[in-house]
Amino acid sequence: MIDSQESLERLYSRHKGLIGSLIRSIVINNKSVVSIADLQQVGAMALIVALKTYDSSVGSLSAYVRRCIRNALLEEANSFSGV
Q: pTM of the entire structure?
């Protein structure tokens, strides 16, 4: 459960490397105009959503978080593909 701004900051700090790694892989594979800052925000929001919606029946928390963040980043990057 996410209960304070401090805990949100700690969660983001703990997952910042994962978000950055996923952003780099998406930017390398998507040459369209993509704002890194926008992708960082999308990744942070996806992390929060993943933590709030996690159900142990879908597998491990780390795999679920990674999948949620990656899907959100891809969706955001693909929204720029027509630019």
A: 0.80
Give DSSP secondary structure letters for 26-78.
Answer: HHHH--S---HHHHHHHHHHHHHHHHHH--GGGS-HHHHHHHHHHHHHHHHHH
Contact 39, 26 (CB under 8 A): yes
Q: How far is CA 72 from CA 1, 4, 5, 35, in A?
A: 21, 23, 22, 14
Q: What is the pLDDT of residues 2-33, one digit of tens each?
A: 556 668 788 888 999 999 999 988 877 665 66
The answer to whether 29 and 76 are in contact (CB under 8 A) is no
